[in-house]
Design goal:
The chain is of the alpha/beta class. The protein has 2 domains: 33-228 and 287-309, 3-Layer(aba) Sandwich (Rossmann fold); 361-620, Nucleotidyltransferase, domain 5. Helices cover 27% and strands 17% of the residues. The protein has 19 helices and 26 strands. A 9-stranded mixed sheet has the order 3-4-2-5-6-1-12-7-11, sandwiched between helices. The chain has an 8-stranded mixed sheet with strand order 20-21-19-18-13-14-15-22, with helices on both faces. A hairpin with a 2-residue loop joins strand 16 and strand 17 (453-459).
Amino acid sequence: MLGMREAIPPFETGAQVLARLAHLLQPKEALSVSEWAERYIPHYDPMALPFLAEIMDALSDPETSEVGDMGPAQAGKSMVGEAWIGWSIEHDPEPFLMVQPDKAAAEAFVKLRIDQLLASIPVLKAQLAHGDASDNMHLKLFRGMYLGAAWPVRSQFRQRPYCRGWLDDYDAMPDDVEGEGSPIKLLNGRQTSFEGRDTKLVSSSPAREIGGVEAFIASGTDERLQPVCPECGSRAELNLRRDLKFDAGTLDEAEQSAHVIAPCCGSVLEPTAKRALLDSLVDLPNRGFVAANAEASKRRRTFRRDGLLSFTSWGALAREWREAQMAWEDRQDENPLKTFFNVKAGVNYRSQLSGEKPLEAADLLKRREQGWQLGTVPRGPKVLNAVIDVQRDRFEVAIIGTAAGRETWLVDRFAIHVLDDGLTSIMPFLHKEHWKVLLPLFDRKVPMVDMGVTVGHAPILSVTVDTGGSDRKGDQATEGSKFFWQAARALGVAANRITLVKGGSRPNDNKLMPPAEFADQKVKGGRKKTSARLWRPNVHKIKNILDARLRRTVPGPGYIHLPENLSEEHADEIVAEELVDGKWKARRARNETWDHLVYAEAAILKPPFAQSRTDMRWIPRGFAILWPNKSDYAEQAVEAAEQPNPVPAEAEQEQPKIAPAKRPVRRTMIKRKRKGDWLGKRRS
């Protein structure tokens, strides 16, 4: 046994080696992006939204180097990008850059989408390079390629070249990245060395009236879906704004009555017809897409899709649209409408005011109400607020009344030029102590006049100060307003009754009144919570709301009442700005009264006041305007009317001579703290 030798296997012949390894030399089956997604992505259903395959395949078409995709949120745009990334990793490796609107979005997309894609598809995971350094948050290394995750800052578009790039949620990105140009231009720079093989995808729901993804779509083939009508067999493009119909009642009624009017034949399509419309796209050329720009080159293929052919049901769309309509009807808030059309319809929202001529002072002067004088409170307002606009040599003051549904009254309008001594001129930007002249406003009582008789005096709930002025000496208005805040607090005025505002024009910000910031910082850093709070309302959107209210012609919710003796000067100030290309621009130098109306609305929008509510149950005890019964002063009203020269109501300062009728105690819900109520008053 010891002498036996092991048999040496024979060497493989060249033919045997070739037969064993031939599969490695076999070229991969040519797959388009949609074919690859259908084969490998478990959660991709090609029949759910059949038209997605056409957008995917444009990305693997050698004749196309730029693809645009505009449509509703949650309608498959990310699925298109995911499929393209997976196809690039496994099927046709090339350096790839994925760009999200900010760092947090980029990291979230990698964790929730890319990492899950690698974990669920073995052929992708097998392509990942060995070593811990090959799989990190911002850069992943694969065989033959690398995948970068970035966001639109200058440093993210440097160092590495990329053959393919995807700009996702493009309308949330800045137009100009740190002075370097648009994200598309920066991506072009990274693709220079791959000219002829470079491809980019720009996808987004629309969020800009000018420019953005819509401009990119319009500059390409601009292809729209034209499904087959199940009633007449013709093809037609659906349009949510035009074709979706529902009853303008409650939200439930809108949802239950939702239907579509076919633009080709006028037939009523019930929600069940949506599936037939989508299925009809499968066998159509280009899966139902028809180019609006037929002469455009295939080099830039762009796709525009409507919310009626997305995942959201027609009933849910009708419900959300109706809810947005109600917000506009109740409080002239366009933000829900804009959100609905941008996010759910997949189209840019055009303001209700777009194209309307600016209001003129003459139009407002015609609306002045006879019998009601500036400086008095007529029947109607439920609460009063004072608003201050700071100027170099004076304080411009307005007192604004508000009732349910944001019905508004310009109760008083005056300027403070001198201190209480009647001699010293006010200089708010130079002398902080001059701001003390505003403190009496907290105790001011405005005469309540009805039928020519003063029947009571209404209190001022809060004082709002615009801190935006500076007089070229730094932010002196803010410093003075903080001094005013401290002085008022020292006198026992509750913090909620003082509102310091600094306007911010952010058309794309959804919040009308973002949370306040503490105005001062600690020595070692961090906000000083005992300091004044600074509110930054979105004045752009508030101006949109007020402009719509000024156009109302019938008193009621949202209407703005003007007194009989409102001056032409103040009327000019109200219409001192106009909406041009989506932005408010000055028509006249003086606009104080317009600003007063804007910041009066902002004051009510902050907590703990009305915020988004349109009722008046939020008014704290002691500040609601309560009127006696008319029968208690009817005789005095008759006598006053018979006087040849009645004393002007605003000149009467003494308390009413009649005792108001007894009224039941009004119970108001008050949020209380342990040591006092939410206006800071201690209870005995």
